[in-house]
Design goal:
about 240 residues, mainly beta, 8-stranded antiparallel beta sheet, 20 strands, globular
């Protein structure tokens, strides 16, 4: 039956909400046994690219230009990251691969991974960025602004050599941000569990597991978890660089 053109997906000047019913899949150059759902890219005004890669067993991601960093987070399945040594990542496992790092990402079985790619902005005096391999479960949770019902896990180290941050945020039912945030950083956000209400600009949207949100710089933003289970998302922001850089 036709859906008569209905969707929760929205594209506004300063934000984007993409829901699974509107996802379009296509392989990116160099992918083998894999396809990509490109959620956001410079074509919409973003300073980074984020996509979900759906990989068959043995499937691989393509390469990236030498100036590009890559962050990989496993949603489902298992992948092997090889960058001189091999690391097997299960759900919640992640890898940060600095610009210029030769590497491969291969699915050990059918898998879904979130991938963030960004051209690197150098910072004078900063030591070169290093490879990071980790597990979300090992990142210590920190109460945001002292609110124990809202926990943040920083997946990347506090290191000026890295020009972006990736966190997970988990909200207990009914928990919400303490303010409407308006700031220079942009965000890419993938809902991992649960759902709630997101304010973007002057509009309010129901969101749930599987949805993706892009927030441009200075987009007013606020979230509250709704339902009987916690809401959790993976969130990117540009970081550690002067706005004039």
């Amino acid at each position: 039956m036709l859906n008569l053109g209905e969707t929760r997906s929205v594209h506004e000047r300063d934000h984007l909400l993409l829901t699974p019913d509107s996802f379009v899949r296509a392989p990116l150059p160099g992918m083998k046994g894999a396809t990509a759902i490109v959620h956001v890219a410079p074509a919409v005004g973003a300073g980074f690219t984020q996509y979900t890669a759906e990989m068959e067993a043995g499937g691989t991601l393509g390469t990236v230009p030498a100036f590009t960093q890559r962050f990989v987070y496993v949603i489902e399945g298992s992948v092997v990251v090889e960058e001189g040594k091999k690391s097997t990542l299960a759900p919640g496992g992640y890898a940060y691969l600095p610009a210029g790092t030769p590497h491969t990402v291969t699915a050990a079985r059918t898998s879904r991974v979130a991938v963030i790619e960004k051209a690197y902005k150098t910072l004078g005096g900063a030591a070169p960025a290093e490879i990071v391999i980790g597990k979300e479960q090992n990142a210590p949770p920190v109460a945001l602004n002292g609110d124990e019902w809202l926990q943040v896990r920083a997946l990347l180290p506090d290191n000026a050599a890295i020009d972006f941050a990736v966190n997970t945020m988990e909200y207990q039912p009914g928990a919400g941000l303490s303010q409407v945030e308006i700031h220079v950083m942009e965000h890419g956000l993938l809902m991992l569990d649960g759902g709630g209400i997101y304010r973007l600009g002057d509009k309010w949207y129901p969101v749930q597991k599987g949805d993706f949100i892009w927030m441009a710089p200075y987009c007013p933003q606020w979230f509250c978890a709704v339902g009987k289970t916690p809401a959790r998302y993976l969130i990117y922001k540009d970081w550690n660089r002067h706005p004039l850089a």
